[in-house]
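Before our next group meeting I need something from you. Please put the record directly below this note.
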Amino acid sequence: MCRLYGQRSAATAGAAEPLCVSHNALRFQSHVHPHGWGVGWWRAGRPQVERGVLPAHADQAFCDASHRARSRVVLAHVRDASVGAVTERNTHPFAHGPWLFAHNGTVARFRRSARVRAALEAEIAPSLRRNLHGETDSERCFYLFLSRLGRSWRRATLAEVRRALAETTRIVSGLADPGAARPSSLNFLVSDGRLLAAARRGRTLHLLRQPGPSGRVVIASEPIGKGPWREVPDGGFVGVDPRGRLVEGALLPPRP
């Protein structure tokens, strides 16, 4: 398991408090999820990512990065390595183009089945497949998500992101879950610096909407600091579009 954090604000904002000092800050959560950390934000439309392989609670660089992370969207992740060695290339969030992506969970049978690994990679567009650098199931889920976005990935709408997350979840579970002792757990958090979106499947996920001029929406694996936090239902989706509008519902919306 891992732990995710994402926030979108109406204007440029930092996230050092929830990442480092708030009650149950992500740094504290790294006592249970000690296999590295990553913090991501955007500068002039380009993602900036800093990573480390030490536990966040034992690495001053985590809080240094958290203080530098200032933009409308900030993402962070602390890792509990279920697949892949503890190295920077396996550390979230992963980046490609304007996108950052983090995953909490595990693709069923990924470690023990070469067939599952090959089938998952075959679903990734060839132009993106060559960008795979690490060993994790999570990185492959990221490039599968970008593949499902298709040509819209450079300027996607929230509806397109929701559909791509749903298709990624459907494809991964369809390939990996048959015959597995436990189904895949697929909590995904994605952003291109304009919008923020998350899908929940098999792991906890919570939402906080802060009223006032900040217009801040926070999505996290566990509540951090003051609430009121709400739990995102399993199978649910939550997102904030580029205009700051919050959208909630099922990841797979009912057909008309």
Notes: The longest strand covers residues 3-14. Residues 3-246 form a domain with the Glutamine Phosphoribosylpyrophosphate, subunit 1, domain 1 fold (CATH 3.60.20.10). Helices lie at 16-21, 26-29, 60-68, 114-122, 126-129, 137-149, 158-176.
